[in-house]
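The material for today's practical consists of a large collection of protein records. A record pairs a protein's sequence with a compact description of its fold. Instead of coordinates, the fold is spelled out as a row of discrete tokens. We will come back to this pairing of sequence and fold again and again. Here is such a record, shown just as it appears in the course material.
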Amino acid sequence: MIYILDLLEFQVLAAARKMEAYYGFAREEPARQEVYYTVYQMVRSGILKKEGDGLVIQQPFSGFIGRIASSPGVLVADRGQYVLPRQCVYFADGQYVCVENCRQEGSGVSLCAMEEEEFLLQLQELDQLPKPRLDEEIGVYDFAAYWKGHIQEELWETLQSGVRAETEEYLGYGQVHSVFTMRDKVSGAISRRMVLVGLPLEYCMALQDIQKPGEASLEPYTREKAWEVLKSWWKDGEG
């Protein structure tokens, strides 16, 4: 189930868990009266409940914010050509929490929690992990030569620059289908990135790692491979 919060409501909940800064959903510092009124409205709507001298975040929002606070990082999923939605995904306690700007409410965010199978299905349904072009194995094939001959020159040069290039630099290239970026929750610093390049024969997975500066590692795409890469990022973060 998807829940929608005003951006200031999200800020209030984040501050309650001592998350004063977080990547992806910033807004100007609100006036004190605006915060007071927002807290009052959240009590009325049942998001917050008065207990003793304090206020307690109620479910499911306490679960959302708790997992966001405990997540080792944030996975940002973008589609090429700036196709919406851009999603910020957190992982803790075996669940994925997806946060994105609400298109119906200009100043709102939507939140939902998913198990692994549901999250993978969403990635496929939103075409972030597209259906492969090849229906069967083609045997021994020189993919390296194919990629070098078919990836446009400017994109190739950007791929070779590693994580130093910002994700936004990729989204305007027509060959870029989607980009997954693992970031620090607070600073937004990139630790890993996967760029799916859409080529006529098959998609290419370009993998970048801050621990391995320089050119990207290029691999043939399958949904299974891409999913295993994304899951490994969470495991590495937890370790």
